[in-house]
Amino acid sequence: MLGGDENAKLEVISHISEETKERLGTYLEKTPIEIMPLESDHILDMIVTVFSGASYAKVRIADEHTQIVLIEKDGEVLQRKDPEPDKGEEDIPDYSLLTVHDIYDFACTCDLEDVREILDRQIECNTAIAEDGLKNDYGANIGKVLLKTGNDLKNRAKAYAAAGSDARMNGCELPVVICSGSGNQGLTVSLPVIVYAEALNADREKLYRALLLSNLITLHAKTGIGRLAVLLPRGREQAAGSRICSEGMSGISPIPSSIHWQSHRGSSAMAQNLLVPQRSRLPWRPAFSAMKCSNTGSSSMPATVWSKKA
Question: I need a surface site. Which of 3, 80, 189, 206 has the fewest CB within 10 A?
Fold first, then answer.
């Protein structure tokens, strides 16, 4: 392996030196890498096996990104533990409280001091990486391509979200505030709303409340598939949340015809009246443990070989 800090958990490669990064291209060219499917009952399960001559080392994680359940070297088991899929269940928010009606009510009436800090960080971090994606050369540069097709408001909203993802997935080390476990979701739920708010000269309170609605609608839409997934989640959940809020601010019917979730029908009128003051009927506050700041520099795992579970 070229580098990394095994004690840094999710930021395992966040402090790799420039010298190590320069060696990565040559290493990847010379190192055979094989990716194979793994049959498992766990939502998240990965086995990484690396070889050097006749010697090998194997590590398995399951259920949590930092939960190592097996370390094996040359046939000798150095560490083994049973996966604990129910560990920490008591810390998981009660998502049954997240209905579209109650999410909207909370977004309209909550005390913004309770959420200001995390929303300010989402605005600052996610805008910064989107602007970096539009300024520099990252991957396919989808954000830049979108802007070349037109600079209208809807296109800018899409371009900022795409540019943030361009940068995040192609080596930019700027942090991203995530939503429901995903950096790309965090970008998609926030950036179109931020772009719309700026274009409409919306005040800060309107932006905060729109972002609350967008984030929580996405959490609600994702409840059925759980917090973890091996693949990046599909974009329609977060796109729906951001579109409900963005177009709601501009008075446009926010429900696209291509989205057919029963739970989202009827939210169009709510979104259009997003900032109408009303008395809160909710004695609870949604837990924002699903929105965390994540350094995206830790998301890659170069120079590894995946193998089938023995």
Answer: 80
User: Which residue is it, tokens 């009952």?
Assistant: 41
Whether the Cβ atoms of residue 288 and residue 14 lie closer than 8 Å to each other: no
Range of the domain at 79: 9-84
CA distances from 240 to 48, 207, 251, 264 (A): 36, 17, 16, 9
Does residue 157 contact residue 246 with C-beta atoms inside 8 Å?
yes
Residues 6+ apart with CB under 8 A from 259: 236, 240
Exposure of 40 in the CB half-sphere (CA atoms within 13 A): 21
Same domain, 59 and 109: no
- The answer to whether the pTM exceeds 0.85 is no
Q: Report residue 238 as tokens.
A: 């977060």
Alpha carbon 195 to its chain centroid, in Å, reads 19
Of the three residues 39, 56, 84, the one that is the final residue of a domain is: 84
The token pair that represents 51 in the structure block: 């070889």
Do 40 and 111 have their domain in common?
A: no
Q: Are strands 76-80 and 293-295 parallel, antiparallel or unpaired?
A: unpaired
Whether the CB-CB separation of 63 and 44 falls below 8 Å is answered with: yes
